Amino acid sequence: MNNSESGFRHGVAGNYAFFLCALAAAPASAASAENDVAPLNYFLHSYGPASTPTMVLGWVFAALLIAIFGSIALLLVWAVFRKRPAVDPHSIGREDEGMPWIYIGTGISTCILFALAIYALITLNAIANPTHAPALTLTVTGYDWWWKVEYEDDDPTRSFVTANEIHIPVGQPVLVKLKSADVIHAFWVPMLAGKTQMIPGLANQQWIQADVEGLYSGQCTQYCGVQHAHMGLEIVAQSEDEFRTWQDAQRGDAEMTAGINAGKSLFLDRCAGCHAIRGTEAVGAHAPDLTHLNSRRLIAAGLLTNTPDHLVQWITHAQDLKPGARMPSMALTATELNALSAFLSTLN
């Protein structure tokens, strides 16, 4: 182990929490800059018809809770400062004097809860299906701890697979089929739609629609293991033309550049068992498809920004950065690392 690598390992050990918090905040910062709001501020902001009704429902529930809290606080203050009339300590009063108030309170509470239940069911029905046929169908599969995204097409040759980043056309409903490959996950892009469970052996679905171009952060919200907090994704809402351009580029195989044979051979030898790169012999299905790796803004399910330095750190120190992930920390010589980095840099 050289001095720089040793220093890096000690730095990770000493600053792990701060390092991960800062990097995990990268998608949040980007989304905030794009939409001018915090990415998880779904209580005040909605950018799609599947999330607006639930946002309003949240306002109603919050207003009711505030009203209840205020009423109880006023009654408590009144009870504290109320002076009871003097009574004969030997007299026996009626035991049911306060019962009418209990009946009234119980009746009001029952009516309110019943009304809220009806309103919640109406809201669920309103967002159950899009207003018109989805323009796009995706299958998202949750893994420990990343997202596989399959873009479906009537022509199988036009389907393709990517990971952790979903591009959609703005203003169009998108059907999202949800599956899990291991444990229970939950798909949630709070500014576009509510939460939906991803249960092994069961296929669920929801729909999303973004009415404003930009980046929208998503997160697994069902505890699924030690790296549950670092299982993020991004939704990129684009204009129709930009989306079609991106989609056409994603359908193509990786373009092999001359002079990277050493890195390619190393990848096929060390990485192809898990990762796939279309156009090569790498057909692994247990880790993200890397065919167009450099088109993504983030890596490691949102943990790191996709820069050459972060990619090298992820390859060599994956277990330091994301303990428990299936990605191992790879021991490579400087020559091997340079060759592998050169090959990965061509995956545009």
Automatic annotation (TrEMBL):
Subcellular location(s) of the protein? Membrane
Q: Name one GO biological process term.
A: ATP synthesis coupled electron transport
Entry keywords, A to Z: Copper, Electron transport, Heme, Iron, Membrane, Metal-binding, Signal, Transmembrane, Transmembrane helix, Transport
Catalytic activity, per the record?
4 Fe(II)-[cytochrome c] + O2 + 8 H(+)(in) = 4 Fe(III)-[cytochrome c] + 2 H2O + 4 H(+)(out)
The molecular function GO annotations come to:
copper ion binding; cytochrome-c oxidase activity; heme binding
Signal peptide extent: 1-30
Q: Which InterPro entries match?
A: CcO_II (IPR045187), CcO_II-like_C (IPR002429), Copper_CuA (IPR001505), Cupredoxin (IPR008972), CuRO_CcO_Caa3_II (IPR034236), Cyt_c-like_dom (IPR009056), Cyt_c-like_dom_sf (IPR036909)
What GO CC annotations are associated with the protein? membrane
Domain Cytochrome oxidase subunit II copper A binding intervals = 133-249
The residue ranges crossing the membrane are 57-81, 101-122
- All copies of domain Cytochrome c, residue ranges: 258-348
Q: Indicate the family of this protein.
A: Belongs to the cytochrome c oxidase subunit 2 family.
Query: Which PANTHER family does the record cross-reference, listed alphabetically?
Result: CYTOCHROME C OXIDASE SUBUNIT 2, CYTOCHROME C OXIDASE, SUBUNIT II
Q: What is this protein called?
A: Cytochrome c oxidase subunit 2
Source organism: Methylobacter tundripaludum
